[in-house]
Write a structure and sequence with these properties.
Layout (H helix, E strand, L loop, with lengths): L7 H17 L5 H7 L6 H13 L3 E2 L8 E2 L1 H11 L7 H11 L6 H16 L3 E4 L8 E8 L4 E8 L4 E7 L6 H15 L4 H4 L2 H9 L5 H15 L6 E4 L13 H11 L2 H8 L6 E5 L12 E9 L2 E10 L4 H5 L10
Helix pairs in contact: 1-3, 1-4, 2-3, 5-6, 7-10
């Protein structure tokens, strides 16, 4: 059966089974449906329809003597065909507004706060793919000595992104040396697109400063090194411990798989890097990572200055996919 071949009665049974399982997290039997829901159908008819849905792959039995639960195919049908939109309640909307009412904060802080509030409100892990550095415009760089041989490089973009990196240098430098280097770099680079800084402009700078002091030459080298670390977007996440509240992850091995995934940015990047308009829901084995085959990932794009620059999402157990996806779409304040 394809998705569009379910008749209205089977759609109704699938919806009721899914709704009940979302609420109870327990397999659903035909007697439960007949008792709890006024469908105008006998238990025998409900049982036959459930058997047909199981045979077609929309329902499954976790145990021989148990009732039925939605399969991945059943969840997908529900999401695509049966799910109804819901709204955040006033308390949830108020909490979100409270988090974002201070627009003077740096973008990096806003992104971290966003994943934090999403994890807090959903009680699930939340993830975000931050903006790329490359489309931005260079605004400011500051070089700060942390010790005799360690320098903190701070780069600020026109979108408010602050890129930070601590780099070791061979020769000790003073704050005065780095202030002069910061001033010269800002004078030469302010207003330039980052895409150009990784090629000709910085190479020209290195040629220009051959006769200048070594601290300035080191500063350019540090800037190149820092830009080299940001070919891709940064991944933010919060609330990983929340997944332990759900029965699917009481098994230690499943939780360890997920925890390992969260520690590897390359893998998280793959989960979030596909850009799709609107809300996107990947259920169970539709996800490329085995660690999240027991989960669903709900993602949406966000914008800065009218331009789509990143992805935000929440990692949920499949039984909550429908509820979460119909309610949670955090829109960042637009810069």
């Amino acid at each position: 059966m394809s998705q569009r071949e379910l008749d209205p009665r089977k759609e109704l049974i699938l919806k009721v089974v899914t709704d009940d399982y979302i609420e109870s997290a327990e397999p659903v039997g035909s007697r439960t449906i007949a008792r709890k829901y006024n469908l105008g159908l006998s238990p025998a008819t409900i049982r036959n329809e459930m058997a047909d849905l199981e045979e077609s792959g929309y329902l499954k039995q976790p145990h021989v003597s148990a009732g039925r639960i939605p399969s991945h195919q059943g969840y997908r049908y529900y999401v695509d065909m049966l799910m109804q939109q819901q709204s955040l309640n006033e308390e949830e909307q108020g909490l979100i507004r409270l988090y974002f009412e201070d627009r003077s904060r740096q973008l990096d802080t806003i992104l971290q706060q966003t994943v934090k509030i999403l994890a807090q409100l959903t009680r699930y892990p939340s993830l975000m793919l931050g903006p790329k550095l490359q489309p931005s415009i260079f605004k400011h760089v500051q070089l700060i000595p942390l010790s005799a041989n360690d320098i903190l490089v701070l780069i600020v973009t026109d979108m408010g992104i602050i890129e930070k990196k601590v780099i070791a240098v061979d020769c000790p430098v003073t704050q005065a040396d780095l202030d002069r280097a910061s001033y010269s770099l800002n004078k030469k680079l302010r207003g330039r697109p980052f895409a150009s800084l990784k090629s000709s402009v910085l190479n020209e700078l290195k040629e220009e400063i051959k006769t200048e002091d070594s601290s300035f030459q080191q500063a350019v080298t540090l800037l190149l090194s820092t830009l080299d670390t940001r070919e891709r977007e940064r991944v933010y996440f919060d609330g990983i411990i929340n997944i332990l509240e759900h029965p699917e992850f009481k098994e230690l091995e499943k939780f360890k798989l997920l925890l390992t995934l969260m520690e590897e940015e390359d893998r998280l990047h793959r989960l979030l890097s596909e850009r799709h308009p609107g809300l996107r829901i990947s259920i169970g084995e539709e996800n490329p990572e085995e660690a999240v085959h027991e989960c669903s990932i709900i993602t949406a794009n966000y914008e800065i200055g009218g331009r789509v620059v990143g992805t935000i999402g929440v990692l949920v157990r499949p039984a909550w996919t429908m509820l979460m996806s119909s309610r949670w779409l955090i829109l960042l304040p637009r810069a």
